[in-house]
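Structure request: HD domain-containing protein, Pedobacter insulae.
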Amino acid sequence: MQNPIQQTINYVKLTLAGAEVGHDWFHIERVYKSAKAINAIEKGDELVVLFAALLHDIADPKFNNGDEEIGPNKAETFLKSINVELAVIDHVKLIIQNMSFKNSFDQNKFTSKEMQIVQDADRLDAIGAIGIARAFTYGGFKNRVLYDPAIPPVQNHSKESYKNTTAPTINHFYEKLLLLKDMMNTETGKVIALERHHFMLSYLDQFYGEWEGKK
Ligand code: ADP
Ligand code: NI
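Returned structure:
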């Protein structure tokens, strides 16, 4: 019998075969590795952290008619099928239900050390070199321009502006990516986020320089 983490890895790989690149197995693998590394310092319950990292994007509401419950329910059904303790399953389910960036606008939601660690790991994958690559991949998929000096980023960022944006991909840096360093939960996550944040700032500096033919 394989250990439950290995069983979960196999299940997630299989389930995400053919998933879009933003949330494919490699995204999960990066979040899993980051969550494990952060947890080694922050010392949460490792099993909860690893299960939640592996299962957090198992069914994207975007491709399920906006249904936010399919993912958490799928995770629950799977963890029950491999006989994971009920308290662990409940905790993992709560983490998955509460993790998305969208939900971070809602007050009074569930939190725990394990939730904070997995959320930090997921947010880290949206910034730095990989975050930049993911943003332009998303923008390309939506056929958005890279940058348009005539279209400024949305200022007062809100749930609505985040949802409705059809702006150039560079605007997404100001609407989300550059805000993430101040949204990190753990000290360990903050340190890593700051380094990736500086990388993005220097990327933008280079980008604008090249745009003007100056660099
Ligand atoms: P999450 O997985 O954190 O819930 P999303 O599903 O919103 O995030 O986005 C997946 C990836 O696509 C992230 O790296 C995110 O930065 C990027 N992305 C989302 N919306 C946009 C956008 N409007 N422009 C460019 N990139 C985007
Ligand atoms: Ni994710």
